[in-house]
Amino acid sequence: MAEKRKYSKRHCKYCEAKVDFIDYKDVKSLKHSLSERFKIMPRRLTGNCKRHQEMVENAIKRARHIAIIPYIVSTRKAVDNPVDNIDNIYR
Ligand SMILES: [Zn+2]
Predict the structure, then answer these.
(1) What is the DSSP string of the chain?
(2) Higher pLDDT, residue 28 or 74
(3) How many angstroms separate the alpha carbon of residue 3 from the centre of ligand 1?
(4) Structural class in CATH, domain 21-76
(5) In the chain, pLDDT over 90 holds for what percent of residues?
(6) Cα of 77 to ligand 1 centre, how many Å?
(7) Boundaries of every domain in the chain
(8) What separation in Å is there between the alpha carbon of 78 and the centre of ligand 1?
(9) Which positions ≥6 away from 68 have C-beta within 8 Å?
(10) How much is the average pLDDT of 54-75?
């Protein structure tokens, strides 16, 4: 099965760009290290080195704390008025 890799392996893009500090407000660059459900991608998939992975983790955790990035993504639909739909929620 020749499945194409989403991320190139063994190649830290932060080292290549010579990044010394990862800004937690820069969500666009953090998106690279987040999965579709906003989980932190493991180093073996992104190819980040250990030093930069720790910086990314810290930045993501800070961004979560100030609510730029969600902690959890629910698969259930959000309900506008819970009282009206109370029968539908527990079905
Ligand atoms: Zn690196």
Answers:
(1) --PPPSS-SS--HHHHTT-S---TT-HHHHGGGB-TTSPBPPHHHH---HHHHHHHHHHHHHHHHTTSS-S---SSPP-S-TTTTHHHHT-
(2) 28
(3) 26
(4) few secondary structures
(5) 37
(6) 38
(7) 21-76
(8) 39
(9) 24, 25, 27
(10) 91
**11 band by pLDDT with thresholds 50, 70 and 90:** confident
CA 51 / ligand 1 centre spacing (Å): 6
Full-model pTM: 0.70
Cα 55 to ligand 1 centroid, rounded to whole Å: 9
pLDDT value for 77: 58
Residue 28 CA to ligand 1 center (angstroms) comes to: 18
List residues bridging with 61 in a β-sheet.
none
* Residue 71 predicted with pLDDT over 60: yes
56 CA to centre of ligand 1 in angstroms = 10
Q: From ligand 1's centre to the CA of 54, what distance in Å?
A: 10
